[in-house]
Amino acid sequence: MSREPPPVSPAPRLAVPRLTRRHLLAAGLGGFAAATLGSVLAHASAPSLAVFVHVDAKLRYFQGLLRDALPNVDVTVYSRFGDAIQAIDGGANALLALRSVLEYQGLRLALSGHVAGQTTEPYVLIANGRQVEPKSVRRVGTVDLLGRRGTQQWVERLLGANPEVNRVTKFEDLLPMLQLEMVDAVLIPEAVASMFREKSRLPLQTTQLGAQVGLPALSVLKAGGERIVPALSRVGGHLNHIMRIGGWQ
Description:
Elements: H1 21-26, H2 30-45, E1 48-52, H3 59-69, E2 74-77, H4 81-89, E3 94-98, H5 99-104, E4 111-114, E5 120-128, E6 139-143, H6 147-159, E7 164-168, H7 175-179, E8 185-189, H8 193-199, E9 204-214, E10 216-220, H9 228-233, H10 237-242, E11 247-248
Parallel strand pairs: 1-2, 1-3, 6-7, 6-8
Antiparallel strand pairs: 3-10, 4-10, 4-11, 5-8, 5-9
């Protein structure tokens, strides 16, 4: 009669020591491994910045410029309102967005973009072949700034009307709406209007609006985000031009 082999006890779990740059150097692994680990550790401790700013540039290009300008900040650019809100809920240290977005979320401003001291910019309606009366617009295209309900309310305040709002995630998607006559007009910053004229052969006409919209601004969401304020305030040049601002205050 065969006997069952005795049960094998599981091997004891070994505690794995936490490696640091000093340990790597002591082990003779060289500067490359130490530098790599140091970079990872520094990145892990960097404050995170969620960015939700619509610009006339590709998202990856815009994100790359921000990361180059803010090397000690973990920067992620979002094109969708819902994704930006999830980033806030997920623990981002700060949010860079239009003032309308920050105010809609009830967030305080730590830093504001400006042009010659002005923290707002004019918006316009662009239509194909004619100027339009804002209150008579029935269908309008715009970027999704505040989600379905929030963007609808935002457009209504700017136009003084209740049009059907067609939302997109980037400015360049608005031009086909005019080409295909899906909307009566599109609502964009005046500074972006020249891009539309350059990219289209349509006889586009601009209608000025009396309302102004806040420029990009920064809100600190939790501890660590305050470290981003002085870093962002030093950003300038081409990056600021893309965000349609002249500086920070």
